[in-house]
Amino acid sequence: MPLSGLQIYKLLPKTNCKDCGLPTCLAFAMKLAAKQMELAACPHVGAEAKAQLADASEPPVRLITLKPSAKIAGGRELKSGNETVLFRHEKTFINKPGMFLRVHDNEPIASIQARVAAVEAYSVRYVGMDLTLDGFAVQAEAPLDATRFASVVSAVRAASKRPMILIAPDAAVMSAGLKAIEGDNALIHGATAANYEAMAALAKQYHSALVACADTLDGLADLTNKIKAKGVDDLVLDPTSRQLGASLTRQTQIRRLALKKDFRPLGYPIIAFPGDAAPDQEALQAAQAIAKYAGFIVLERFAPEMVYPLLVLRENIYTDPQKPIQVLPGLYEINNPKPTDPVLVTTNFSITYFSVANEVEGAGLPAWLLIVDAEGMSVLTGWAAGKFDAERIAKAVKDSGVANKVTRHRLVVPGHVAVLSGELEEALSNWEIRVGPREAVDLPAFMKQVL
Amino acid sequence: MPQVEIPKDSWSGSVTTVTLGATAADGGTRSHTITVGGHKALPFMHFEQKMAHRPLIALEIKDHRPDDWSPLLLDLWGDAANDPASWAKAAESAGADALVLWLSQNGTDGKPTTPQAAVASTKAVLQASGLPLLVFAPGQAELDNALLVPISEATTGERLVLGICEDKNYRTIAATAMANGHLISTRTPMDVNLAKQLNILVRDMGIPPDRILMDPTTGGLGYGIEYGYSVMERLRLAALQGDGNTQSPMIVTPGAEAWKTKEAKVGHDVPATWGEWLERAINWETLTAMALVESGADIIVLRHPESMRRLRAAIDELMSVPA
Amino acid sequence: MADHSVHFDVTPDATALSETHPPTVRVPTGTLVTEAARLAGIDLGQPCGGQGRCGRCAVQVTGGDVRRRSTLRLKQEDVAAGYALACQSVVESDVTITIPLQEKIERRLTTERTAIEVSVPTGYSAAAQTMRRVAVQLQPADMQDQTDDWSRLQSALRRQTGIPSLSVSLPLLRRLGGILREQDWAVTAVIETDTWDHPADAARLVDLVSGHVPDHAPLWGVAIDIGTTTVSLWLVDLITGAVRAQVAEYNGQISRGEDVISRIIYSSKKNSASPLPSGEGGLIELRDLVLKTINSLLATACKRVLADPASVVKATIAGNSTMMHLLLGIPCESIRLAPFVTAVNHLPVLPATVVGLHIHPEGSVDCLPGVASYVGADISSGVLSSGLDDAEPMMLFMDVGTNGEIVLGNREFLATCACSAGPAFEGAGVQNGMRATEGAIEEVWINNDTHEPTFRVIGGGKARGVCGSGLIALLAELFLTGVIDRSGHFNMNLSSVRVRRGEHGPEYVIVWAADSQTGYDIVITHVDVDNLMRAKAAIYAGFTVLADKVGMPLEMAEQVLIGGSFGKYINVEKAVEIGLLPDRSWDSFKFLGNTSVRGAYLALLDRAARARIRDIAGRMTYIELTADNSFYEAFTSALFLPHTDLSRFPTVQAALAQNPKNLSKEE
User: In CATH terms, are C126-210 and C220-367 the same topology?
Assistant: First the structure.
């Protein structure tokens, strides 16, 4: 269980010596609780306290890192796990589940290479970020053929700089695949009660993480204990259910055991296979996996019209809800405004933006909404901190080019910053500066009655 | 082999059971009723409590052909979208569990929708289809009052859901719903506290809990859905923890949310990385809906029948967990 | 129907008893005791209009018994002792009723908290503070002893006090010879023995007068709190430690902005009227404004005790960091801009003339230390006066002003935060708001059925406006009687003429023009309601988030100590009803009045207290509320009456349950 600031404080020297760089021990304790500082910053903490604090800071879901061999220039790393909550609002989800495209070793090499190249090149822009898939899974198909598997793995590695998952039920085949990408920290799928000893040996040999597969939680816990006893710590869980309801149940139970019961045998990320579902259900299965606790997601199909919405969903669900979210500054059109419609100004704090946009849109009133870069602060906070002042508003007006889009130059500023109107009149001499209401909820009435 | 003890949450509260629509036996004209809510655990946690009522899907129709809808939708519905009665029939045969008649702000003549027209549209839909009906006004407090009061009075006993009940007009809508035997759908902008506050205000009016649905507003995929998602999870958790003002079943409108995004609505001059238009639009709608189903939605209002088909298949799977 | 006799026993001068009426009346069964009292010519106070809500009409049945419809507000032991609410009790037999003294009733009502009276710290000795007055007789100079005047004075003082050496200013040296000779080398000196910032420095001669000032004559000091909205000043006799005058006035800077942020922004403005080239015009202007307020308060206080302001030798000043910077003309832009730092937290002791205070020109000004940009000396000194820093159990201290500052802790730790509440609770920024002085409505009750108000005015005359505690009561009553809903929206469907649409939207008329001192209607508008809701929500959110961040449930705080400028009185029940204070046993609240000026007073009187404030400022952990979304979330949750999470306010829910229809009145 994570300790609260006050609990940690009680373990600290309480001298307020400031050696950690903070004004008081309590301030330091709160930073520790929020995991924003390391205990090492305090030179005076005793050994016993250290031990207690270290215990409390071990993550309930183990962090797993996959990466291609260091020989591959520009190789991409993937982290999964380290999660601390069941619901994102409790704090935040931390490491986005890795999304992998699966290829099969019985496909023609050329077609595999084409798909890998397409995924490798795929990058879609969403609110200023470039979203991509994270890697490839290669699955050995019957009849098993170690050489064929190894050659497909090599082909994928040759075409990609991303981490890999190797899927084969047989240790000899797996060994050939791993050898083909020696130096990679890959993910091995997977160990069962039948083959775990051989698979664990491979995981150790190739410094790779290992998926434990079992169709009951008892079986999974038993298996991870056995593998751990073989000296493999980096594990991933496959509860093998491929049905939506069963997956949801299992994955929820696993996360709860790890977090609420501190049950270490299931304290590992989970791998999900939406690609095993019917084609028109793959997106929905992947969506559930994103929201409900998967750490790795293996897709079957690569289609931008499915991948793009999934990447966006993943981005949304893994957004830190504690951080004020910003919207992109700029000019937004609400209800198809005409050149005669008013220009409303507010900040780029997303809650501020949404309240204004929703009110005006809901009222069916056309308007131009100019979002000023106030570093994600609300109107009052931004004003207080000097991030939403006449200078910044004037700059936003000029940068947006809104002057060319409207014929009536009316700028409505939030009522809370009525005090800025004088300066704005100076800075934007050809604009009529109007002071709007203080709250977004009063905007529709204001627009109807006053504008 | 060790036995893993599976942690089960036990909750003191539950979601209110709400029935929409009234058949002739109960003073209405619906062919059947539908019931949502009643949950005693988080969505689909059947191992704790078998989920009382599955999430249901309503299709959204309009009182006249909506010019601002995506061509994908307008082409699909074709001539049926020209009048509410034929649209209602088409939606019913597409397999909707219920219908949402969402009134337009303006009539075809460009003037604000009149109470007479709104009543006529509502009655036409009631005659054309036996499905339980939800009537949403355009979402402007004053106009909504003007349209919903006569609709409510003209359809006494039907157990319609009247929306949208907001903090600005809750008194009028709650009062007319109580007087005429209807339900209300409250709507607040993506905020747990505002949702609770409006619930308290309408309950203070004396409207019984089994006549309230709440729409927490969700945002669409890529456009703030994370707020809606977490607001719904928090509301549902609070409901199960026994907070009486969060226990209404939740109604969400991913159809409207998704289809107003550029990703769903527009097919030309968009990046190639967005992929094929129709499939992308349907994914946009179903993924928005799926996230909301996972976080506790009870009535999901969609626009495209294919999205409905896929989502229903997913809900079927979620409802039937193999032992 | 049977008649019964009701005999009234009236405690001497308890109430207005008309001599023409007999204290015994006969009334039919079912008559209310209040009605019987009226017939007997006895005026029982019923502020709540006879609704059994305020408890002010409690009487004691000393013979026979009455039927009590409601015993709300009476404890069980009260009822056992025969107490009954006159407005809720029915005569059904012959009874004797004793009417207690009004003050006695008010003392019984635990909901009303009067600020603790100021008393001199026990065991006070003038030697605990730094100003020492010494009467001394010098050996006159003669041809045998040609020692210079200054050395002569120093030697004499050294012999008498043991103070080894003294420093002195040039202006005083210029006058020295004259003063010594004026009354034959008999003089009285005022010496500053030490300062906290330079404890090893020589003592300093502050004042010298001819002749011997009697030992019991006062030696004046002042304690000052500069609030964003209100400035308070206590005139203190340093010899006895007694506070001899307390005065307060709105800060003259208000006209330049209601909150600290506006002031900071104003301070960095160029001022066309000022010849200063840089952006310091605003700063100088604000400095002059607050000095004007302080100096005028000083003059008022001194006038009251016939003292000369120039005889005040020391001023100890508390105030928030911005106010302190503005007083001293120190640029303060950095307070509002990230990373939010002050120019200085620990200020040296300064000469009065440099600061601009019109006390003794050689007097000292000691500005108390703050913690951070938004937790200033007002809070360090508030913590001192609350005793929180030395408490064993966990306590919560809140200073409700324009900024609400909250401190949680005990002798082990102190955590603090600040939230902007606005000036509403000080009666400013509200249409008919005013300070808690003569003419202010400080208590309001509204009738459930008629929506007519009854109220109490400070001084007893006609009302001029409503002060902070009155506004709290008013908001609570508007809510409980259904004039506004839980969101603070007026119910325009009510038939009362007092609820109307005014110039600024919906409003409620408390006093009609004809009955007010101003000749205008006294109203509370929906904008005022919004401001009050925001203020109370900010403060409640502040302490929930603070407790959360520290990781301690709020309930663990054993006491809630309240400071602020509401006036001398706060009705805890009303403050709980609106959700300003947490819903908990009324006994756990302690109202301390203006804790900032009280802390300054304690620091003025005692070096040890001054050192403790310094220690407090160093120990306090400041928590920035706006670092994430949690404050916003808690604020929205608190922006409701009493709170969105009703389970936090069980007694308010219970009170509402008695009148469910109020919430949904549709008349």
Answer: no
Contact criterion met (CB < 8 Å) for B46 and A291: no
- Short-list A318, A262, A235, A209, CA closest to A58: A262
Q: Which of residues 250-269 of A touch B (CB under 8 A)?
A: 252-253, 256-257, 260-261, 263, 265-266
**Residue A201 in tokens:** 């040996």
Runs of H (alpha helix) within A43-108: 47-57
B7, B217, B314: residue with CB nearest A244: B314
Residue C653 sits at the chain B interface (C-beta within 8 Å)? no
CB contact under 8 A, B46 and A306: no
Q: Do C261 and A383 touch (CB under 8 A)?
A: yes
pLDDT in tens, C601-654: 999 999 999 999 999 998 999 988 877 778 888 999 999 999 999 889 998 988
Q: What is the CATH number assigned to the segment(s) B20-319?
A: 3.20.20.20
Q: What are phi and psi of A36, to 5 degrees?
A: -100, -5
Q: Which residue of C has its CA nearest to A416?
A: C262
Q: Which CATH class is domain C3-111?
A: alpha beta
Report which secondary-structure segment, H or E, holds C220: strand C220-226
DSSP β-bridge partners for residue A351: none
CA distances from C160 to C128, C130, C134 (A): 18, 17, 8
3-class DSSP state for residue C268? coil
Buried b vs exposed e over C44-60: b needs ≥16 C-beta within 10 Å?
A: bebbbbbbbbbbbbbbb
CATH superfamily of A64-317: Dihydropteroate synthase-like (3.20.20.20)
**Residues ≥6 apart with Cβ < 8 Å to A399:** none
Span of A170-179, A321-330, B18-27, C578-587 with lowest mean pLDDT: A321-330
CATH superfamily of C220-367: Domain of unknown function (DUF4445) (3.30.420.480)
The secondary structure of C183-202 as a DSSP string is TTTEEEEEEE---SS-TTSP
Residues of chain C with pLDDT under 50: 14-18, 20, 274, 277-278, 665-667
Contact list in C for residue A3 (CB cut-off 8 A) is 551
Contacts of B204 in chain C (CB under 8 A): 485-486, 660, 663-664
Residue percentage of chain A with pLDDT more than 70: 99
Q: What element of type H or E holds C441?
A: strand C440-446
C259 to chain B, closest Cα gap in Å: 27
What is the C-alpha to C-alpha distance for residues B51 and C139, in angstroms, rounded to an integer? Answer: 103
Give me the CATH topology for the region A5-57.
3-methyladenine DNA Glycosylase II; Chain A, domain 3 (1.10.15)
> Touching check for C666 and chain B: CB below 8 Å?
yes
Interface test with B, best of A120, A282, A305 (most B CBs within 10 A): A305
| Residues A190 and A210: beta-carbon distance below 8 Å | yes
Q: Tens digits of per-residue pLDDT, A84-133? A: 999 999 989 999 999 999 999 999 999 999 999 999 999 999 877 899 99
DSSP C487-529: TS-B-TT---TTEEEETTEEEEEEE-GGGBSSSS-EEEEHHHH
CA atoms of B192 and C630, how far apart (whole Å): 13
Q: Which of A261, A311, A312, A315 to mutate to test the interface with B (most CBs of B within 10 A)?
A: A312
Cα B283 → chain centroid: 19
Q: Which fold has domain C392-570+650-667?
A: Nucleotidyltransferase; domain 5 (3.30.420)
Q: Which helix (H) or strand (E) holds B165?
A: strand B161-165
How far apart CA B251 and CA B254 sit, in angstroms, is 10
Neighboring chain A residues of C628 at a CB cutoff of 8 Å: 322-324
A80 — phi, psi (to 5°)?
A: -140, 150
